[in-house]
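Sequence design from tokenized structure. All designs in this work follow the same two-part layout: the structure record, then the generated sequence. An example of the structure record is given first.
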């Protein structure tokens, strides 16, 4: 779909690509052991959801520190309404309010919503301002894969360059070593 993508990793941080206006980091939440959520899962009730473990919390904090070290001093931070995504967003530790965005919510348990959820995410990205500082969008594997064709690991992100006219281009992947 997108051909070979650069593994941005450290070089993306070193070159400051994410600090440039018009870039978005579409980030899968940090490590949360297991797959999916229980059938009884309810938004707003973290006890009913799959959550970050200690490794996931450390991963999210390390990613935030690496982004700040790379020059991403300010970022708009958006998150899925799932607790593991919200906790990842909080642990990135940017001095900005975390905005909950329904367009970032998982459709893993309702695969029939995949096409409409992806269209809603595309529309949301199309409406994002192009000339503002980087945005970090904390979401889920199914959302990243449906939008880009990339299957990210926990805590891995896909860097999107927002294009004029509402489209975007995949600039690469970002995953910290370790």
């Amino acid at each position: 779909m997108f051909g070979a993508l650069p593994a941005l990793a450290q070089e993306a941080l070193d070159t400051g690509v994410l600090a440039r206006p018009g870039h978005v980091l579409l980030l899968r939440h940090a490590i949360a052991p297991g797959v999916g959520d229980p059938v009884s899962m309810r938004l707003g009730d973290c006890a009913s959801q799959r959550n970050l473990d200690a490794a996931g919390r450390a991963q999210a904090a390390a990613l935030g520190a690496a982004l700040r070290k790379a020059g991403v001093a300010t970022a708009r931070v958006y998150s899925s309404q799932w607790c593991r995504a919200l906790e990842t967003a909080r642990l990135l530790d940017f001095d900005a309010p975390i905005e909950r965005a329904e367009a970032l919510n998982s459709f893993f348990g309702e695969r029939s919503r995949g096409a409409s959820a992806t269209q809603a995410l595309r529309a949301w990205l199309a409406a994002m301002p192009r000339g503002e500082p980087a945005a970090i969008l904390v979401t889920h594997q199914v959302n990243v894969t449906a939008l880009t064709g990339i299957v990210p690991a926990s805590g891995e992100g896909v860097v999107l360059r927002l294009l004029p006219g509402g489209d975007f281009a995949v600039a690469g992947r970002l995953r910290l070593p370790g």
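The beta strands are 23-28, 76-79, 98-100, 135-139, 157-162, 168-174. We note this feature because it recurs in several other targets discussed in the main text.
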